[in-house]
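BUG: 3D viewer hangs when loading the predicted structure for this chain

Environment: internal workstation, default settings.
Expected: structure renders.
Actual: progress bar stalls at 90%.

Input used:
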Amino acid sequence: MTVTSLMPGPTETTFVERADMENTRVGSSEKDDPAEVARAGFEAMMAGKERAVASWLSARVQARASRFVPDSAKAARLRVMTRPGSGSTD
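Structure tokens produced before the viewer hung:
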């Protein structure tokens, strides 16, 4: 038996709105289709994989690199990406 960890990047759901994060970098970034995220997670689970990174390329790169980055650095990056007002003003 295996447990598969699904690690999605920003996904087009109601989470950003409910969390009042529309004006953050995460909130204003491009988001993945929830069906595609679910499909990637299901396929990884059925294949017995430990993890599935279901997201755009830069998030997959970040997920791989995060194994070598201290938690404090990851927390600092997330703090910047979720800071109110950090989103694009276009």
